[in-house]
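Supplementary notes for students who missed Thursday's class. We covered one full example, reproduced here. Read the sequence, then the structure, then the short commentary at the end.
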Amino acid sequence: MTDTSVNATGEDRPWNGTRSYAGRSGYVDAGGDGDADEGGFSINVPLILGTLRRNAVPIAAIIAVCLLLGIVKTLLSTRIYRGSSVVQIEQQSANIVDTQSIESATPIADSSRFLQTQLAILNSRSLSERVAERLKLFNNSFLVQMGGSGISADPKSPQGQQTLRDAVVGQLRAHMSVDLPGNSRAATLSFDSPDPKLSATIANGYADAYIANNLERKFDSSAYARSFLAQQLVTTRQRLEDSERNAINYARDNGLIMSAGGGSATNGTDTTASGSLTTNTLMQLNSAYGDARTERIKAEQRWQAIQKMPLMDIPDVMSNAAIQSMLQKKADLRAQLQEQKQRYKSDHPTIVQLNAQIAEIDAQMTRMATDIKNGFYQTYQVALKQENSFVDSVSNARGDALKEQGKEIQLNILRREVDTNRTLYDGLLQRFKELSAVAGIESNNLSVIDRADVPKSPIQPKPLVNIAVALLVGVALAGLFVIGREMLDDAIRTPEDVRRKLGVPVLGTIPVLKGGQSAIDEINDPRSGLSEAYYSLRTALEFSTPEGLPRVLTFTSSRPSEGKSTSAIATAQNLARIGKKVLLVDADLRLPSLHRQLPFKNNGGFVSVLTNQNPLETVVQKSDNSNMDFLSSGPLPPNPTDLLTNYALQRFFQSALEHYDILIVDSPPVMGFADSLQISSMAEGVVFVIDSNVGHRGATKIALRRLAASHAPLLGILLTKFDAEASGYGYGYGYGYSYSYSYGNQPSKAS
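Structure (token representation):
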């Protein structure tokens, strides 16, 4: 028989011991994290619902505890009452007389900074001390009213008094608040305490103390300013007189006359400044020196430009009218010379005369060009002498001007000191007269709008707010718990977990069966949810490689009892139903189970074929389906790894494919054994089975790495025992799954 098999497209292809293309999208290295996003932002609602279902109990417990704590706190909290008074704060007060205030007027555009300053005053320690003194609160009874126990120190001792003051002021500042909206000038002063009457009293006390403090500060500022100005007037007047004497004495000693340009003269007359002639002379000499220097530079540049040029290349030579006339005459003589040379020899008198005339013209042009060039040099020398002649004159004039300027500088300093002292004295005198006129008559810029009434209802506790906060805290804590638990949990429960944690394609998901249902019975029922799931797996396998359905297909897992044996049976039966000639091989030589599930006998089977004891035809067992045969594992060998050599497996697969289209191999788990790695490395496709209830990323990734190291053609992951509803995939994955099953209730019959 020809060594051929049929692919998914109906084409025959031989099996020569090599593996086909692995994976629908290629083999994905299981060594990576597999956490790459597919691009774009999306919310996985089924994943979120599944996570909430798995953590429903701890979430409910955390929220319930937080709500209970919120209710207990509400019941045990002390009732707090708030008294509030409203004060209007004007930026500027009305002036009775038109004079400037002691305090600098705040610009209207800077009102925000002014209001912030007022807030700082309201929250200051000094204002709280003033309120406590006015209301006589420096005692232990106030501290007890505020919910404290008073102070233990002796209130009559200095240390005890200071401790008591600090405690009272601290309570006042801690329970007092100021609300000043940005678009308003009405400040609300509020005080919270367990006593409603005390709250209203202290709120009004703050308003009264704030207004009184503002008036006292204005009066104190005016009194201090007038006293300060009186002292400064005496000092400034004496300083003005001394500076005037010093300026007059210096001018007299140095023969200088105080000019009007330097300030007001002490005798009230204006004169011209001394030293102006020297300064003007220096300026004129500097100007002349600059002009001479400019002319010298120009002449020098012209001379340097023509110094090394040939005489007849100088532009001024070529543009000279006499030179141009000589050149024209020379051209005419050359023309005559050429004409005569055609008639006479070079020693003819006419030829000699013409040559002499041309030589004479050349000599004249040379002399004239030399004179023009020398003229440029003479111009440069004259300009250089003129420049040098100004150097000494400028130097002498500068020295004289500097001497006079030194004297004038000192005189100007003395004159400025006189002017400064006079201006300062006049300003102080004017300001002192204004303050004396308006002292104590400026109105206050603060006023009380509403005084605090005794509150009738407490502001704390707020039951609804406390319960809402407790609920939010509970939800936040529950969310943190769920996030932390999910981050630490490496279980693989959903297809999304497979793609995200392993980075391997998902071939299908097999639903979990309810208790009491048999997996084999459900597989034999073509309309059951389990059969539908395996139909989808069959379709995925048909498109798993470019060549179609793999001819040697191996089922394995990382550990026993994950559903690989049942999946191998279901896949074999599905392929047999569509006309494929299928051989189901139990290659688990350590714990075989297929012969008990189908059921069949465990005859010589796979072991006898590998050891050449029996041919394949004699040990194959027929099933009810004419297209499906079964090969049991046979007697358990002492060392299965020695039997599963590449040569033996290749020989077996070649022999089996002569009679069958597809070989379905149920291999042992990957972890702990090398059997599955040897079988998988010789197969054309490997289906890795994961139990969604017990599969973990760590063990699964190790198993996938071992398969990758053995170059096994991994097609993808088959997720078994999948509870779609509990995982939050009830709508998508649960649709059409009307039954469920469990492999765990038959541990002796499933690998």
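Commentary. The longest strand covers residues 81-89. Residues 1-11, 20-38, 258-276, 731-751 have pLDDT under 50 and may be disordered. If anything here is unclear, bring it to office hours.
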